[in-house]
Amino acid sequence: MTVPMDEWTAATTGAAVRDRGHRRRWTVTGKQPSAMLQGVVTGHMPGPWVQGDGVGAGRAEYSVVLTPRGRTVSDLRLWREAGAHGDDASLLLDVPAAGAEALQAHLSRFLPPRLARVTDVSAETGMLTVLGPLGAGLLAREATGLRLEAAELEAMAEGDLRAVEVGGARPLTLIRCGDVSEPAWDVVADAADVSALRARLDAAGAVSVGREVWDALRHEAGRPAFGVDFTEEHIPVEAGVHTRAIDYDKGCYTGQEVIVRIRDRGHVNRHLRRLRLGDRPVPDPGTELWRADGAKAVGVVTSGAVSPRRGTLALGYVRREVPPPGPVRFGGPDGPEIEFDNGTDE
């Protein structure tokens, strides 16, 4: 796997853009959309907007949806649509394509349609991510017309959002993204407004980056992608997303009993780890990890990527009896020894 160096340089020293329109965007409307979703998602529900002069501020909350046995239906982000207040405030969901079908079926079972209705607005909306050290300045000029300064964008925590009125049915919504190791902001708006912004970004010199660069930066950040590293076979605690996705103080939600039992009285048998492979080729998903003495398999690789500054990285599950930094044997009982960490630099 070769990383295009012009794209890498833009993403790590300048400004780059990646189209993420393949993700799904749904609205949830009705008499009580927030109240109905409260018992379905594991995380915080987004609070009210703070509205300024043409710019709103709020939160996009990361969450997961679970089966009664604690298995994952999908992960998602959700936020209140601009200017929405009260119990009937409409919500917008950002859903990975890999989880959309199962999540749609799940919501059709658990949301009463007279109180909360899900509508797919993916075709009429768009999403892109601006990333890189110069990304905030580029967004301040091209997306907000300098109504937001670069410093304010840079100071946003993951999940913080700003919504800028641009004349369309929806504002340009800028959300601080933590999926990659470089500063990044997701932009969601009407498809025409996203297309127009993309043209301005291209004209201003933003470089389009493909999957190789995105995956390298995602692996540097240690972030699992749903459908790749984190699937319906995994519990959020195993994938390490529970610190972001679970509100342990909220009321009942589907799958809560399993999550609380793990927190209070138990443990999971495997954890997602970031593997450091040096100059080795990117491993195939499913490559086994063995105990250092070669006695038994203790894990499996889920994905990998090449980082020009970190070497080959991979994500994979390792049994809890083998704590970081390992080592484990890579590829078989006689394979080379490698080390791993907990998946983040925090």
What does this structure look like?
- The protein has 346 residues and is an alpha+beta fold.
- The chain folds into 2 domains: 15-209, Gyrase A, domain 2; 220-341, Beta Barrel (Elongation Factor Tu (Ef-tu), domain 3), CATH 2.40.30.160.
- Helix content is 25%, strand content 32%.
- The protein has helices at residues 5-13, 33-38, 97-110, 135-142, 150-155, 191-203, 211-221, 236-239, 242-245, 256-265, and strands spanning 16-19, 24-29, 50-51, 55-59, 61-66, 72-80, 91-95, 117-120, 125-131, 160-164, 172-177, 184-190, 207-208, 270-278, 288-291, 297-307, 311-319, 328-330, 337-341.
- The strands form 3 sheets. Strands 3-4-10-11-12-9-1-13 form an 8-stranded mixed sheet.
- Strand 10 and strand 11 form a beta hairpin.
- The chain is globular, with a radius of gyration of 21 Å.
- The two termini are 27 Å apart.
